[in-house]
Write a structure and sequence with these properties.
- The structure is a single chain.
- It contains 11 helices and 8 strands.
- The protein is of the alpha/beta class and 375 residues long.
- It has 2 domains: 302 residues, Aminopeptidase (3-Layer(aba) Sandwich), CATH 3.40.630; 52 residues.
- An 8-stranded mixed beta sheet has the order 1-2-4-3-5-8-6-7, with helices on both faces.
- α2 packs across α11 and α9 packs across α11.
- The longest helix is centred in the middle third of the chain and has 24 residues.
- The radius of gyration is 20 Å and the shape is globular.
- The N and C termini lie far apart (41 Å).
Length: 375
Amino acid sequence: MMFSHLSHAISLRDYDKAPRSGSHLSKVVKKIEKEDLHKNLLSFIKNSRPSRMITSKGHKSAREYIVKYINSKTNKSGQVSIDSFSPDFPELIDSYKLKLSKIKASLEANKSKDQSKDKELLKVQNFTKSSIDFFKKSQGLKGHNIVWEKTGSDKPDEYLILGANYDTMNIDQLSYELKPDSKQPGADNNGSGVSVLLSLIELLSELELKRSIMIVFFDFGEVGQLGLKSFYNKYIDDNKSKKIKAYFHLKMLGHDSKINDKKKRYGNMLAYTSHNSQKLFEKESSILKEFYKYARFINKRVRFDQSTKDFIYPDSSYFRRADIPTIIFSQDIENDYNKKRINTENDFPETLNIKTLYASYKYLAQATSHWLLDL
């Protein structure tokens, strides 16, 4: 398959492959420019049209594009692999039914004449029924996680894991029914996360890392986080010897408004941490402070302030079960959520704030590279 807009990769001088300081590293991080990241986003979306919904043609094209990008834009110092898995659709269907029954029970226990609750229940029922019908038709379909791994030279057993889902889901905003055959560009959700990771791989492949990194593009991220579950079962549960520093999940990094933002400012992005485990909360808080310190060399637009509020997507549950510090980097869901476009046909790249997306890349690239280089 031919892909458009696969430009030449960066090539660092030997001096820049092993930065001596945070300020030196910041200059290297900027070798990937805002225009490069923007092209990555546009190219990924263009080559996975019209949708990345599982079963769609675009879904397969997205997987092929990511692998092609990594192979063409890296110096082969890392390894890319495709991990295929068989989604447990019966279990997924049961989980959807259970969630619906819990919502019904909750509404029954709090009987009210509030018609908005009845409308909310109808939406949940429509979403559940349409999803289950779709899952039944999809049984037998394989999922495919894409994993890029680079082993460090000095501390190979110390790992940092970053991930983002690459599939999409389109939901009718009135009826809340699943629309599997409709167009869904998925620029913010989650082309933004994918494009940052692709740019990060291009950078890290050139650096002489002392610690190890795994970057994962999860399939079935919008469908019960089944790709995450498969990855956990293969790499985490069965590999206790790895010292995993943390898992960072990148989700919806492109939306950033000032007019609609309740805080009326740009750069309002958050780092979501645990709130049910004091032990994990303390670890995650410590990691954020450490990484804030690393990122100070490069970024002022985006800080990723810490939040313990519930994130609307449970993209981290499996890692937290293993007591692995988990941080979700995303937009401010409470104050500046891209509600009108997420999971719709209108999630276009033209609606995103590329300055903030690039600032997010710089923050994550600087902080993670600093730790991986053991500066």
